[in-house]
Amino acid sequence: MGYKYKIGQEIEFTNEFYIKTESRKNIKVTKGDKAIVVKKINDTMGKIIYKTGEAKGISGKINIRVDDNIDAEKIAKKILQEI
């Protein structure tokens, strides 16, 4: 069936690719860049926010399976770090 990511889980990219912003600008995502899963869109697509690299702060949709459960431990740690 394949791996499912949880909302709040950090992912690290293993290859390079480009994303296109709303202003039509191409931004390179490189190996090692990280993102956070923020939403399940459907059974084969999720929404992420890039945390590092050129795409930092940009949100986008990618083809991943997202679990309906939330990674509560990761979210709690993030909240504590922000306080």
What report would you give on this structure?
Helix content is 13%, strand content 46%. It is built from 1 helix and 8 strands. Strands 2-5-6-7 form a 4-stranded antiparallel beta sheet, with no helix packed on it. β5 and β6 form a beta hairpin.
N-end to C-end Cα span: 38 Å
Total helical elements = 1
Q: Determine the strand fraction and express it as a percent band.
A: over 45%
In sequence order, what are the helices and strands, one letter per element? EEEEEEEEH
Give the % helix: 10-25%
Number of strands: 8
Radius of gyration: 13 Å
Oligomer: single chain
Taking strands numbered 1, 2, ... along the chain, how are they ordered across the largest sheet?
A: 2-5-6-7
Classification by helices and strands: mainly beta
Mean pLDDT over the residues: 89
- Unreliable sequence segments: none
* Sheet of most strands: 4 strands, antiparallel
Inertia-based shape:
globular
